[in-house]
Design a protein that fits this description.
This protein has one domain. It contains 8 helices and 2 strands; from the N terminus they run ααβααααβαα. The protein is globular and about 50 Å long. The chain has a two-stranded antiparallel ribbon with strand order 1-2. By secondary structure, it is mainly α.
Length: 219
């Protein structure tokens, strides 16, 4: 029973889904920025813009990388979709980083000069940096990509809501609980050691947190 639950948690909180969870939560759970104009608050974004942004995240952070994984699996370049074999992770990591890069450029080109809240621009670039570093680390050790995604989710919430005057603190509590469940599931299933999940979580958190803060103060 516990093993089934651990597998369920692993699939519900795939690394590819974490950016979508982060953006959707910020867009549809009310929060209020310190500034009167609410320029950096995703909740007050135009509803049509919200749908476009979510569509782009769905395509470039989940559908395109997910389809690439399926192609790699059926062409037998990877043994399974969870990419358990460290030696097989190189190409999937490069492909995922590439789609993050494309998404980041797409936002800068299609919505230049701060048209969208700063955190929208920050998320794909922070993800790109985190994935590239994870790829470098993967050459020597099997860092947890699930933990990387959990760290990115929590890092985004901490950085984003630190610039909001009013928000639901429960979101941060839920993010901590989700992160704990994901890290515990990966260790319980024997996919990673404690060190590997902590490294992954820390890397994801730092990259996204710093990216959101950087874009927030530079736009």
């Amino acid at each position: 029973m516990i093993r089934v639950l651990a597998h369920t948690i692993s699939w519900l909180f795939l690394p590819l889904l974490m950016p979508i969870y982060a953006v959707t939560t910020a867009m549809y759970v009310p929060s209020v920025e310190v500034s009167f104009f609410q320029q950096d608050t995703l909740y007050w974004l135009n509803p049509n813009f919200k749908l476009v942004v979510l569509a782009w995240f769905a395509i470039f952070s989940f559908l395109a990388p997910g389809l690439s994984l399926l192609i790699l699996r059926y062409s037998k370049n990877i043994s399974n979709l969870e990419i358990d074999n460290r030696e097989e992770r190189g190409v999937p990591i490069v492909v995922t980083a590439m789609f993050c890069f494309i998404l980041g450029v797409l936002f800068l080109v299609k919505a230049p000069e701060g048209v969208l809240p700063a955190s929208i621009y920050a998320l794909p670039w922070g993800g790109f940096i985190a994935i590239v570093i994870a790829g470098i680390v993967n050459r020597r050790d099997k860092i947890s990509l699930h933990a990387l995604g959990a760290g990115m989710l929590f890092g985004f919430f901490v950085a984003y809501y630190s610039r909001q005057a009013e928000y639901f603190f429960e979101i941060l509590v839920v993010a901590v609980l989700v992160s704990g469940l994901v890290l515990s599931a990966r260790v319980y299933l024997g996919k990673h050691s404690l060190r590997q999940v902590f490294y992954g979580f820390g890397l994801g958190f730092i990259c996204i947190f710093l990216s959101v803060i950087f874009f927030s103060y530079s736009t």
